[in-house]
Amino acid sequence: MEESPGERPLRVLLVDDHPLLRHGLRALLEHVGGIEVVGEAGDGEEAVRLGLDLAPDVVLMDLVMPGTSGIEATRRLIDRQPDLGVLVLTMSEDDASVFAALRAGARGYVLKGTDGTSLLAAVWSVARGEAVYGPAVARRIRRFLTSGPDSGPFPELTAREREILDLLASGRSNPEIARGLFISQKTVKNHLTSIFAKLQVADRAQAVVRARRAGFGDPGTPGLSR
Description:
This protein is an alpha/beta fold. It is built from ten helices and six strands. It has two domains: 10-142, 3-Layer(aba) Sandwich (Rossmann fold); 159-213, Orthogonal Bundle (Arc Repressor Mutant, subunit A), CATH 1.10.10.10.
């Protein structure tokens, strides 16, 4: 069992719009001892308010919530409290979400479904100032760092267009892409129009075929789109 630094327990703020998930996380964190859940927030605005008022050591932050997103909440908290440890706990593992969270100042990024032991270890690691990423996220970061910005396929596409093409090739629908990138569906449609023109394809199905041949998307995703 980990021990909290100093004489007081580790203070954790839970941020997720699902009360049952917050309840389960509280039970897990407080069961082992040495951790105190000082508050719960169901949206980004509440997360910022409680994060500033309660002075937690670690914030367990979901990304996709009503209103203010976890990305924006993280950015605002880190701007005010640069030493705060934000650990993202989310279902989103696409490149755009990962790097948006890191740019906002998150210190760790793990996926929902992570086993309790690993999650507890991640919380304590973030509290110590360490960076923590699950295996799937670490692979994405490694892939990004080992490939130059213009060395990949489709250099005619912008970085954002490649992000959208990657999500498209992974089987994401327009609403899913919009939620993952925190942009509007109209913006997604505009980017897709540009992508189709640059790749000289007629529709999303042809774009997906070209993208997957070039290594984009998750090869385990069935079908071309949802």
